[in-house]
Design brief:
single chain; 194 residues; alpha/beta; four-stranded mixed beta sheet; 7 helices; 21% strand; globular
């Protein structure tokens, strides 16, 4: 049986969004599962394209209605992230495979309910993560940068073990990283074409 959902996760600066975008461009059968969140949009982010942006109150209402299948609360940032059921069901009905970018709790949910395979993406070092974060947000404060780097180090240590595969996304080698992920998808019986 072909699998339908794959998880590509990693700490901030690992390149999970970039790799997900490359995969969905090269293999149109894959679509990114758009996450629901209560965080504010970053520069150029669009509602319903990058994330489903909700207020805390809206997010809680969606949980009560059963529209948020699983979620996590990032305490130190005061934000929620979760799976928005209407997006998931619509894309599966249309015959797409889904790429979910979630934490280890979401990964556990998808493994149990959708036989998903988890791929943990990481940079080769914290120095590379620092460069990527500053490239993405040049005006980030030193305190915020320090906090994000500490979070990234903690996520690698705490979460990596929950994933079947670990892939290092080396600086300047996106095509090689994508190639490794495609090999995993083939090995794990995901269809690459409709």
């Amino acid at each position: 049986m072909n699998k339908r959902i794959v998880i590509i996760s990693g700490p901030t600066g690992s390149g999970e969004s970039t790799i997900t975008n490359l995969l969905t461009e090269k293999y149109p059968i894959f679509k990114r599962l758009i996450t629901a969140t209560t965080r504010k949009p970053r520069l150029n982010e669009k509602n319903k394209k990058d994330y489903f942006f909700f207020t805390n109150k809206q997010f809680q209402e969606h949980i009560k209605k059963g529209n948020i299948l699983e979620y996590t609360h990032i305490k130190n940032r005061g934000v929620y992230y979760g799976t928005y059921k209407p997006d998931l069901e619509k894309k599966l009905k249309r015959g797409f495979n889904l790429v979910a970018n979630t934490d280890y709790k979401g990964t556990d949910f998808y493994k149990k309910h959708y036989q998903a395979v988890g791929i943990f993406l990481k940079a080769e070092s914290l120095a590379v993560i620092k460069k990527r974060l500053l490239d993405r947000e040049p005006n980030m404060s030193g305190a915020e940068l320090k906090k994000r780097l500490a979070n990234a180090a903690r996520e690698v240590k705490k979460e990596e073990k929950y994933y079947k595969y670990k892939v290092i996304n080396r600086q300047g080698q996106l095509d090689k990283t994508l190639g490794k992920i495609v090999k995993i998808l083939i090995k794990e019986n995901y269809k690459l074409k409709k």
